[in-house]
Amino acid sequence: MYIYIFFRTFVPYFYKMAGIYIHIPFCKSRCKYCDFFSTTQLEKRARYVEALLEEGRMRQHEVSEPIHTIYIGGGTPSMMDRNDFFKIVQCCSEWFNVVKDGSLEITMEANPGDITLEQAQAWRAMGINRLSIGIQSFDDELLQLIGRRHTAEQARQAVAAAQAAGFDNISIDLMYALPSQTMEQWQKDVAEALQLGVQHISTYGLIYEEGTVLTTLLEHGVVEAVDEDTEMQMYDYLVEQLTANGFEHYEVSNFALNGRYSKHNSSYWNNTPYIGLGAGAHSYDGNVRQWNISDLDTYIEQAMAHTLMPEKEILSDEQRHTERVMLGLRTNRGIGIDEIDRSKAQPYIAQGMLIEKDNRIVATTKGYHILNRIIEDLI
Questions:
Q1: What is the bridge-based pairing of β-strands 254-256 and 248-251?
Q2: Is the preceding omega at residue 75 within 30 degrees of 0, hence cis?
Q3: 317-378 domain in CATH 1.10.10?
Q4: pLDDT tens digits for range 254-276
Q5: Domain covering 18-269 in this structure, CATH number
Q6: What letter would DSSP give residue 114?
Q7: How many CB atoms lie within 10 A of CB 334?
Q8: How far apart are CA 372 and CA 360, in angstroms?
């Protein structure tokens, strides 16, 4: 499939907001497929939090818009000390214009093995109201193969503990096209996910990223990749099952019950300003993207000395237009027909890969299979 070349962020269009992303890079162990910035240097966690808070203090005037979302990602945020979380959340509320009307969404990514009833209750008490749980699969052999440190039973127990603690906005991640994964295994994963009673499901086809352990294993013939036809069948089955069970397919990789879209990710797709704090974190002000260095020691040193030197990219009008088309076509709202040359879209409309609705162009499930190709043709 082609649709996963662009899409690694971990967003809809009608949420007008600003958000804060906070990167926690620490992991007890690295998953074999992961190419995100992370580290197992757990002894540096306390110092990192100090640096993170210093960066927030320095940059508190960069976003004037009200903050509607805070997203704590990683890495594995759920393995951090709860007191550190309290400091981070409290400082964000003090330094930024965080909304006080009860609509603030605070999401934390969590590993199933870290979630207990007591821990989930503590997170709720400090204001976290949405959990994103990285389950990936309910097959223990596949979990072990890709380097996850939890079991399927721990995943089930984690969701139950979060629900018992009062979380009513829970998202889970699932991955498909795992090495040698069969349709039967994937069907069981989808069925298990539907039984959990969660409000949101994010799904991603495995990408063999350069430099990861899993890619090395593939190159040496230790694991075997799922063929493209099977991967497409897995995606189609997923869409069919989730939509039949009341989930809205609101973005190429995301499904939600009762409008429980990820507000934070929605701001990315809406080209809304956001600020990223932490090593490797990205920020966007509407015209300029910038990102911190992806090196733990250097980031800590620079943040504590108030000498952060992020890399920057000033977007041209053409780049902003490309992003509007690319991001818009990921969602079920699509893009305005005036954003493109309609004649270029017509062949895809004729093939059922795009549809025209209310003066907008929207990709179908069939179109999602070759979305990158469509986007390239339209821009």
A1: antiparallel
A2: yes
A3: yes
A4: 999 998 999 998 888 777 889 99
A5: 3.20.20.70
A6: G
A7: 21
A8: 18
